[in-house]
Amino acid sequence: MVDPAPVVDPAAVVGPAETSPPSRGRLHHVEIWVQDYLRAKSSLGWLLDRLGYTLESEWGHGGSWQGAGEYIVLEAGPDVSGPHERQHAGLNHLAFAAGPASAVETLAAAALGHGWALMFPDRHPYAGGSGHWAAYLENADGFEVELVAGSEA
Questions:
Q1: What is the pLDDT of residue 18?
Q2: Whole-structure pTM over 0.70, yes or no?
Q3: CA angle 69, 151, 133 (to 5 degrees)
């Protein structure tokens, strides 16, 4: 007589695909259309570099910055029409984890010399609400980024 196969709870089985972070649903890339690539590179590209992204490829009217998983493209070209309007339907801003509050402040101060202006200076660094330390920056083309502070640890 052969013993029956043991009953296995499928929820208790963890295969190789489940031991690594899920890939479905994660942000793959963001493509930002800009009117002037060189101007965008000098502000957005500069900031991406400081946040740990690496310029991986560049072509006549664009470039691609690789992050830890996702990548961000800045591109100008013949299909771009009109200026960016963050207060219209569509993308309002990108928010980046930028380290502890001291790192956010250092980066925000340096950004002022690279085409960025501090938004909501009267409410800085709590423009996003009490307990939410962040710097909100806007470049000459109206693109907004939020540099969010994490814990000091």
A1: 47
A2: yes
A3: 95
